[in-house]
Amino acid sequence: MTDEPSLRDLIFSLTHRWYMIAACFLVGAFLGWGASKVLPPLYRADLDLYVGINAYRGPRDRYIVQVAQDELRNLDDYKNWQMEQLNELALTDDFLSDTLERLQARDAYWLDITVAELSAQLRGSWRNAGRWHLAAEASRPELAIQALETWAEVIDERVNEGLSHARQLVAVDASLVAAADELTDSLARFQTLSLVKSELESAWLSLEDQAADEPWTAYDRWLLLSQVARAADWHPGWGALLDAYPAPEASSDEYLLWVERALSVVDSDLGGLPERIEYLENQHQALSARYAESAEKSLGLSAAMDVTLSEEISPGVEDVRPSGTLMLVGGTLLVVAWLLIGLVRFTHRGAE
Predict the structure, then answer these.
(1) pLDDT tens-digit profile of 133-190?
(2) Rounded distance between C-alpha atoms, residue 54 and residue 343, angstroms
(3) What is the SS3 assignment for 248?
(4) Is the overall model pTM greater than 0.70, yes or no?
(5) Contacts by 263-269, CB closer than 8 A, 24 or more apart
(6) Which among 62, 201, 267, 326 could disulfide-bond with 32, CB atoms 3.0 to 4.6 Å apart, if both were Cys?
(7) Across the chain, where does the E strand assignment appear?
(8) Are 41 and 319 in contact (CB under 8 A)?
(9) Three-state SS at 283
(10) Are 231 and 196 in contact, with CB atoms under 8 Å apart?
(11) Rounded CA gap, 303 and 63, in Å?
(12) Cα→Cα distances 307→6, 163, 165, 169, Å
């Protein structure tokens, strides 16, 4: 009767045959390398674009906050959102259709390629502002270079066109805010003057019904003064009017003369306001239309961004078939297969 094999015996046997493990791994790696050469060739062209972002302008960029529809809590959020915008824009059908049209005019190979197929060949990635990495994969090196160069050209042209509109948007936004503020002030001024005019007319009627030598009550006197003073608001001409306000013992006729003078000042200020308000409303409407147009053409990009494609840097190309991965997989699989065979044989020998 023989002893049954133990796990200790199996491990002892295998470790003393380490050369077989090494040989199996080398053979498997060689087979994996051979398999990688049988696979269709794949080449990748790489190119970096410079992307500069003045993130410190982020908190003042009202348009970007509106487009993001989310709170950009810090400078990193602002930078990350802008870089994501670039990546998404570069792979939109609009950008890719333009790229494919230019490629088809450049090489007949691209005539049978669809936008979806082109999209699968292109990659954009980034780790930080300052460097935006673009890559294109194809079955031939020259095709990968064509795809990458043309895509980068489209990105450079269209993104910088969008940035030009984004910078116009900043100027339009400033004018729009100024027009809106002045319109608000003018409407408030018109409302205040209209109310004061109504109160002055009421005071006029009250004073006409009063005897000429009868003094006005202190309450009525200070009420009228406070109402008119509210309309003064440091506007020209009102200081002299307030300085000429009748004394407490003045007659109603003196007050009537002063009210008449006050109504003249109010009418003078009110005279140009309707036209000014109409002008500001038309200006605000025109600026809003320009703002909407520039916003659409800005592609959601920030005026604080700068994207540059250097003409002095050429794409690099490399063979990206997974030779290393297949070698590792091939070597590992052959070692595992040899270990399984050894385990089966060791088990059978113990059962005899």
Answers:
(1) 899 988 889 999 999 999 999 999 999 999 898 888 888 888 988 999 999 999 998 9
(2) 64
(3) coil
(4) no
(5) 263/197, 263/200, 263/201, 263/204, 265/237, 265/238, 265/241, 266/193, 266/196, 266/197, 266/200, 266/231, 267/197, 268/237, 269/189, 269/193, 269/231, 269/235, 269/237
(6) 326
(7) 43-53, 122-128, 131-138, 305-308, 316-319
(8) yes
(9) helix
(10) yes
(11) 10
(12) 68, 9, 14, 18
Nearest to 91 by CA among 121, 127, 52: 121
Do 26 and 331 contact (CB within 8 A), yes or no? yes
For the chain, how many residues are written?
352
Structure tokens at 166: 């984004």
Mutual orientation of helices 323-351 and 7-15 as an angle, nearest 10°?
130
Instruction: Kindly give the interhelix angle for 141-208 and 75-90, rounded to the nearest 10 degrees.
Output: 120
Handedness of CA 296, 105, 318, 35 (dihedral sign): positive
Is 212 in contact with 252 (CB distance < 8 Å)?
yes
- What's phi and psi for 183, nearest 5 deg? -65, -40
Specify whether the CB–CB gap between 154 and 89 falls below 8 A.
no
**Lookup result for tokens 């319109």:** 183
- What distance in Å separates the CA atoms of residue 165 and residue 294, rounded to the nearest whole number? 5
> Could you tell me which residues come within 8 angstroms of residue 315 by beta carbon, excluding any fewer than 6 positions away?
45, 46, 47, 144, 145, 148, 149
Instruction: Give the pLDDT band (50/70/90) at residue 1.
Output: very low
Question: In 10 A of CB 184, how many CB atoms?
Answer: 11
